[in-house]
Amino acid sequence: MATGITRIGMRPWAKALVLLWLAQLAQGEPSAACKTMPALAKDDSNSARCCEIPEMFSNETLNQCMEEVDRSSKPQVEKSCEFANCVLKKQKHIKSDGSFDVDQIRSYIKDTVKASAEWKTLIEKVVLDECIPMAEKDSPGIAKQLKTAMGECNPVPALAFACSAAKFYAKCPSKDWTGSKPCDEWKKYLSECSHSVEDLNEMYVQIESQKLA
Question: What is the residue range of the signal peptide feature (predicted)?
Fold first, then answer.
């Protein structure tokens, strides 16, 4: 997902995230809509900015985490997982036991994120009501399945991170949306294919298929 979405104008905080789940992660069936993905742009420099998504985290936080992750010699998939954990931990969004601090996240959205009231309502709904519950639904099982690729890194924050990026595009307010054909195609796709871990996994499979074509 991150690869596809960055090519249609994802903001820097989401550009740093690479999808990290593997084909064996999905236990059920994805939506049929996930099987038909819009074409990936060939040139990032010519990509349209589809949605003016507010910055969620400061550049300082993102750069610090990128530097920490880049120093590691671990595989890219594990680095992606560690990046998401690093960002969320620096903002104190994750408790010591690895679970999300929902009260702190709600306060952060209200007091720190610089966005309109419409966006703040959308962010809170997406993050707290949709993506975190999705990512936490079977967190022990997900962690067990991904242990070979992730090592000791908890993959649940990265799942919530990527889920949120997709849904921000899918639910982007009309005043912040660029109505180009590629953007509209991606908005429709993400609206129909971001409801479960199985959907997100299929999205990753489709992206990899296009890259190999």
Answer: 1-28
